[in-house]
Amino acid sequence: MKEYKLALVGATGVVGRIARTVLEEKKLPIKEYVFFSSAKSAGTEIEFMGKNYIVRELKEDSFDEGFDFAIFSAGGDTSKKYSPIAASKGCIVVDNSSAFRMDPNVPLIVPEVNSDKIKNNKGIIANPNCSTIQAVVALKPLDNKYKIKRVVYSTYQAVSGAGINGIKDLENGIKNYESKEEYELKKFPYPIFNNCLPHIDVFLDNGYTKEEEKMINETRKILDRPDLPVTATTVRVPVFNSHSESINVEFEKDFDIEDLIQTLKNAKGIILKENVKENIYPLAINSNNHDEVYVGRIRRDFSVKSGVNLWVVADNTRKGAASNAIQIVEKIIEMNK
Question: Which residues pair with residue 52 across a beta bridge?
Fold first, then answer.
């Protein structure tokens, strides 16, 4: 079996650290790993698979030594500058930022949903937004069977999705709650502890946030339904990790609710948590450190002819970022056997 060389860009960040954990678990046929970061974090020593590595500074000539894969988790500006350089050297880039997601020449991949599009890559593959990834894993089998007519998203997104400063804002809010002491906000415009912020990313001229627009456009691209009516409200909540979503779906075809539940139960990458009589439904705390998407609270929407409500939960730093990217690499390796 061929062995590969992989670069992890942004190795010291929140997603980079999770990616290292997932790579250790996966044990892919990678013969050599190289870890990159900004100049600020370069020189950091990290332990990985029982060995110590020195994190290198990412430079324009970093990919001259030859890599098979590079996973980028260092932000859009870094991806825009360095991903094309890596791709020009024959490296396949899996990019976690939003830099290339809506580029028509770049496949936007969730392996359980559209892995057949991987072969269309020209050196760069985009990893979707975390909230979109878990949603389409649940939506795809339903679209295949009943054809989706409309989707309404309401998300409840954890602070880890905002990076280390988002986590610090929640930690500081908890720490200072009883003392009522003032503290500096690192990330959010308002305190996140004991609060919900209907504001993720920047506001656009149409009143939506960029996060909401991402979910709308990425869902259409991944499902290959460019005209699909989709709307979204994305909310940051005081949860450390794992995003939760209420998804309302209207179908072209009618359905039997038990048949729909069975369809989700049999779908790849989904764990069904559906027994309200026993108070069993997906919880953020139960999805932590897992790569599956949890689905439950499945019930017919009686306000339309053929509609359903779903509650969808997943670990946003794993399935929503690091794990999905690594699953893409894993899929390419399988395709090359």
Answer: 47
Q: Are 147 and 253 in contact (CB under 8 A)?
A: yes
Active site residues: 130, 243
pLDDT computed for residue 80 by the predictor = 97
Across the range 24-33, mean pLDDT stands at 95
pLDDT of residue 227: 98
| 168-182 exposure pattern, b = at least 16 Cβ within 10 A, e = fewer | bbbbbbeeeeeeeee
For the chain, list the domains and their CATH numbers. 4-128+321-335 (3.40.50.720), 132-316 (3.30.360.10)
Q: Please name the residue that has the structure tokens 């200072």.
A: 176
Rounded Cα distance, 130 and 32, in Å? 28
The crossing angle, in degrees rounded to 10, of helices 323-335 and 14-26 is: 40
The one-letter amino acid code at 25 reads: E
Higher confidence at residue 39 or residue 220?
Answer: 220
Q: Please give the Cα distance from 7 to 182 (Å, whole number).
A: 42
Task: List, for residues 182-239, the tens digit of each pLDDT value.
Answer: 999 999 999 999 999 999 999 999 999 999 999 999 999 999 999 999 999 999 999 9
